[in-house]
Write a structure and sequence with these properties.
Layout: E1 2-7, H1 16-30, E2 38-42, H2 51-60, E3 67-70, H3 77-83, E4 99-103, E5 106-111, H4 125-135, E6 143-147, H5 168-174, E7 181-184, E8 191-195, E9 198-202, E10 232-237, E11 244-248
Parallel strand pairs: 1-2, 2-3, 5-6, 6-7, 7-9
Antiparallel strand pairs: 1-10, 4-5, 8-9, 10-11
Helix pairs in contact: 2-3, 4-5
């Protein structure tokens, strides 16, 4: 059995509120009687992409558990690569920060969908070629593709401007490949859908939640509700069985 703790969007910025919200998640994980096998954080690690914020990320997520991280649209490649050098293994000194890690019998393909200076996501032809090449390599175990921007519409008038653009190329690469699930963040909501024949599983936002247009008004202002409980996804893979995902919102 492989248990993945899937976190997303902590947006650490040196202030108490996001730090305390992340600590609710890490304290919950530390209370497990059986540790998870890997922690995956699907982007927006820092809120402004500052070196000090990545030092905070490293300190707050320092646990005796394999830790995988990829950038989101709030992240900046150079300070991320410097501040998280112990966790990020990707050649070069800028974007994209693509990675492949084999942990606990599973393969994690971490795809950098960020566009420097922009909030939407996009995969270049070079990135798609890289992903295609990785997924063509055989692997005896589950294969997870992690990407910050999910390939979907949230049907939210603001968020849909910032989703993954030009998804056709990604669909072509993923169709027919052996992929256990696509793990995403960015929308600050637990999401379950499909894309190119594969499950798409989005983690809740740690820093905040994005209410949908038809939901009741919240106490937050603007797009996000910063008062909603932070959450995480737990993906449980057992050989011969379908992947199971449960969502938790620790108090």
């Amino acid at each position: 059995m492989i248990v993945i703790a899937h976190l997303s969007d902590p947006h650490l910025d040196g202030s108490d509120e996001p730090r305390s919200r992340l600590r609710r998640i890490t304290s919950y994980l530390k209370s497990f009687t059986r540790p998870v096998d890997v922690i995956l954080v699907t982007g927006d690690l820092a809120d402004h992409g500052l070196e000090s914020e990545y030092a905070e990320v490293a300190a707050e997520l320092s646990m005796d558990i394999p830790l995988l991280m990829l950038p989101g649209n709030h992240d900046v490649s150079t300070p991320l690569r410097t501040g998280l050098a112990s966790y990020v293994d990707s050649p070069g000194d800028g974007h994209p920060v693509h990675q492949v890690h084999d942990v606990a019998g599973a393969r994690f393909v971490l795809v950098d969908s960020t566009v420097p200076g922009e909030d939407h996501g996009l995969l270049s032809n070079d990135s798609l070629a890289w992903l295609d090449g990785v997924l063509r390599k055989s692997f005896d175990g589950p294969v997870f593709v992690a990407i910050h921007h999910p390939p979907l519409e949230l049907h939210h008038p603001v968020m849909d401007q910032w989703m993954l653009h030009d998804r056709e190329g990604l669909a072509t690469v993923l169709t027919g490949k052996t992929v256990t699930a696509i793990l995403t963040g960015h929308v600050h909501n637990p999401i379950v859908t499909t894309f190119a024949g594969h499950p798409v599983l989005g983690a809740p936002g740690i820093r905040s939640t994005v209410p949908l247009p038809f939901e009741p008004p919240t106490s937050g202002t603007g797009v996000v509700d910063p008062t909603a409980h932070p959450g995480l996804a737990l993906h449980v893979h057992i050989p011969g069985e379908a992947l199971q995902t449960v969502y938790r919102f620790p108090l």
